[in-house]
Automatic annotation (TrEMBL):
Broad class of the protein's primary localization: membrane
Keyword set, alphabetical order: Cell membrane, Immunity, Immunoglobulin domain, Membrane, Receptor, Signal, Transmembrane, Transmembrane helix
Keyword ATP-binding: no
GO cellular component, one term: external side of plasma membrane
Annotated membrane topology: Single-pass type I membrane protein
Localization (cell): Cell membrane
Gene, per the UniProt record: Cd3e
Region (Disordered): 106-140
Cited Pfam families: Ig_5
Protein name per the record: T-cell surface glycoprotein CD3 epsilon chain
Length: 152
């Protein structure tokens, strides 16, 4: 048998597993005046407490570490499931839209300056030679006749 703990806002309601007789409650720092099966803590400050209920020779102990808040909203399982399902549907919808819009753009060439052809690397032609540094060809020795090697 276990305690039943219900939390609503800052109110904590504890139900003792004992069903018969006059029930005596004991809590850390507080002496409850309740002799009923349910013990209600108003304006609980989220501090841990030891709670026990007894009737005759039977005693049940519990360590209460309940976090409460004043601005909390209670949601049932159906609302949480609906929120998660809607979030997943919206996410998948956005993914599908992005996929289809990006799929259409793949075939178009972009006019960017830094683009280069994809696929196999094409060999580039050799660079255009600078006329100031042309190599000496046969039959043109007279152009370079004045450039004789110096002896050191």
């Amino acid at each position: 048998e276990e305690f039943l703990v219900e939390i609503s806002g800052t109110t904590v309601t504890i139900t003792c597993p004992l069903a018969e007789g006059s029930i005596t409650w004991k809590a850390t720092g507080v002496t409850p005046a309740s002799n009923e099966r349910k013990y209600v803590i108003e304006n609980h400050d989220s501090s841990p407490a030891n709670v026990s209920c007894s009737s005759g020779d039977k005693t049940y102990h519990m360590y209460l570490n309940a976090r409460v808040c004043t601005n909390c909203e209670e949601l049932d399982a159906l609302a949480v499931t609906g929120i998660i399902a809607a979030d997943l549907l919206i996410t998948f919808g956005v993914l599908i839209l992005v996929y289809y819009f990006s799929k259409d753009r793949k075939g178009r060439a972009s006019p960017s300056a830094g683009s280069r052809p994809r696929g196999q690397k094409v060999q580039r032609p050799p660079p255009v030679p600078n006329p100031d540094y042309e190599p000496i060809r046969k039959g043109q020795r007279e152009v370079y006749a004045g450039l004789e090697s110096r002896g050191f």
